[in-house]
Amino acid sequence: MNIPNILTLLRLLLIPVIVVIHYLPYQWTYIAAASVFMVASFTDWFDGYLARRLNQTTPFGAFLDPVADKVMVAVALAILIEKFDSPLMTTAGLIIISREIVISALREWMAELGKRTSVAVNYIGKLKTAAQMGSITLLLLTKSDALGTGLVGFSGLALLLIAAVLTIWSMMVYLKAAWPDLTPFKDEK
Is residue 188 part of a domain? Predict the structure, then answer.
C-alpha cells in the first residue's frame, strides 16, 4: 500500500460521505457536499501525480483509480439528476454516465486484444474530466431551485453541457482509434 493507492481508497470512501451529507436536513449541506466532492476530485489528480513522481504506480492503483473516478462521477450525477429534476441535467448526466460504461467496456475489450494503449487517456479526455469535476462541484453548490440562475448555477450547468460535448467527442476519438479492431472484416489482399 502506498500514498497514491491510499488517496484512491480515500476517494472511494468519500463517495458515501458525499451522499449522506447531501441528504442531511440542514441548510449547509450543499456547501459541505460540494466541498467533500472537490477534495475527492483533487485526490484524483494528486494520486496520479504522486504515483508518477514517486514511481509508485501499481497494478492495484491502475485498476482502482479509474473505477473510483467513474463511481464518484456517476453517483454525483445521480444526485444532481434527482436534485434538479431537469431534462437538460438528466440528458447531460446520462450521456456522461453512458460514455463511461462504453469506454470502460472498450478498454477491457482492447486489453483482451493486447491493444489497451490504443485507447489510452488522451488530452480531450483530460479536459472532459476537468469540466465534469468543476461542473459537478458547482452544481452541488447550487440550491435545487437555482439551476441555470445566478453565477454558480449558470456556470455549473454551462460547464456540464461542455463536459457532455467533450464526453461525446472523446468517445468518438477512442472509438475511431479502436475501430480497425472492432470491425469484423479486414481487407484481405
Answer: no
Report the CATH number that the domain containing residue 94 is assigned in CATH.
Answer: 1.20.120.1760
Burial code of 113-144, b = ≥16 C-beta within 10 A, e = fewer? eeeeeebeeeebbeebbebbbbbbbbbbbbee
Flag whether 189 is in a domain: no
Q: Which residue has the cell 463511481?
A: 71
What angle, 0 to 180 degrees and rounded to 10, lies between the N-to-C axes of helices 59-84 and 29-53?
160
Rounded Cα distance, 80 and 94, in Å: 11
- What are the percentages of helix, strand and coil residues in the chain, rounded to 5? 80, 0, 20
First-residue to last-residue Cα distance in the chain: 51
Q: Is residue 187 part of a domain?
A: no
Q: What is the pLDDT of residues 105-139, one digit of tens each?
A: 888 888 787 776 666 667 888 899 999 999 999 99
In a domain, 76, yes or no: yes
